């Protein structure tokens, strides 16, 4: 429907977004300011405990700093009620006391055509149901009975049968005054290539009506009764009603059930019916093709963590890996996937027949997080007994993780992969949870320094003090110029923050990296740990940092790039030292000595500017001498910030 200019603006101006959203959320009274229309709540689009969903009633927009959902009142109703645009407008217009304008002739004609096609599809569905009960449907009824579907179940799902005739449906609907051209428009008939009348699309098939979220029949799927048929399953072609890449089988009932049970994504019609009949009502399936991005987004609007139930065969495995590749750039807070791989040679229907609902429930509870499936896919059946093989694995995993757009999630995936990598390469050695930046493990007994190391730089803690000071400079610059955060978010996500509360400040900066620049600083300060902000404000050495003395954004960018480069270089060396110490029991002699020496050399270069005579030095923009490796890291960070080569040398 085409709406005249100004109608939607008038509708938005009459609505209170706080009122519209308030039906779905519980406002946080500590962060919200009702008088200013500045409201906060836990996000309705993903599971969370904190209030990161923000509504600005004056501007009429909402935004979630966790999952990044955003929009206006119309978009909110479309997403939460699963309604098309015009239906959401109608619902809100009724609330606002506004009458929808008359449709323009072309839009009205299109809407009337769709309504007519829906009526034709419903008439066809009734015809197919009638045929299933008739004598011609005996073989189809026997097949369905063998799949544990009695007459009542067939009625619940609207199952039917298309007779083995070229014109049975066409003649039946013609008797009701429906022109054959409309059957072609609905995808129920196909034009003949030899000049004859159009013929029925579906013949000698069990028929599954496909309904939209509002329960309207928009297409059919047909299973062939003849085992020699060219296509075992045949779906309706694309029509004005049906876009198979944007539709899910059983979407309406599953959406209603998804609030009480996990959303399951099966492969086909029979799997969906078997699961729903066994009590797993929140089950959907794509329509004969691989899952699309639009279908993924539809699933996430129904549930933040759908479970993909795939057949336990090679094809099911391949389908899972294709879906991982599709999902990696899209996942984030409140948008994830789990994978439930059926036992070898079985699909969900087979598992239900052999073990009932308890067996299926057990399989669902054992569903793998996506990171596990990604790891298994890269390591299963491979040998990693050479450095080359391990390096290849590292590259493959880095390439996969680099596709994740959410910087915080990318960091967590990296940590999870690192833990699995340790277990693979060190199967007999226990490993605790990494404590960020300290090279130690929680729960491990503290190491007592021996005489030979007690006086070394590694044992004095001086490097930690220096890192803490650098972290303070980075955070202070970003708090002063928060718009720079978006340019260096990948680097920020890589830092193992050591300073007290620094990780919390960095997380707040990352969460609000895409916020309105005018309110960005305010949002970060409201979200970051207050104790950490107070310590930063009281840090005396920050008063002499040139980048914090004025409003020179370019100078701030250069300072930020230099400090991040130093932090990342020092952090890499610290990790190498920690890993070498943990490998002490398995690695002795010259190999360990070399590894420690190299790590210490790189660390010293990164944090104190010391190096062997063979190290090449260059002068940084602020006059400090840096190694070439450090300068390359700095150039990369400055490039992210957006400074040209000329700007860097100012």
UniProtKB/TrEMBL annotation:
Gene3D superfamilies found in the cross-reference section: 3.40.1360.10, DNA primase, catalytic core, N-terminal domain, Zinc finger, CHC2-type domain
Record field: catalytic activity: ssDNA + n NTP = ssDNA/pppN(pN)n-1 hybrid + (n-1) diphosphate
Class in the EC hierarchy, top level: transferase
GO CC terms of this entry: cytoplasm; DNA-directed RNA polymerase complex; primosome complex
Note on how the cofactor is bound: Binds 1 zinc ion per monomer.
Toprim domain mapped to chain residues: 261-343
Names of the cofactor(s): Zn(2+)
One Pfam family matching this protein: DNAG_N
Gene Ontology BP term (one): DNA replication, synthesis of primer
Keywords: DNA replication, DNA-binding, DNA-directed RNA polymerase, Magnesium, Metal-binding, Nucleotidyltransferase, Primosome, Transcription, Transferase, Zinc, Zinc-finger
CHC2-type zinc-finger residues: 43-67
Signal peptide: none
Subunit structure: Monomer. Interacts with DnaB.
Listed HAMAP family: DNA_primase_DnaG
Its job: RNA polymerase that catalyzes the synthesis of short RNA molecules used as primers for DNA polymerase during DNA replication.
Name of the protein in question: DNA primase
Protein source organism: Palleronia salina
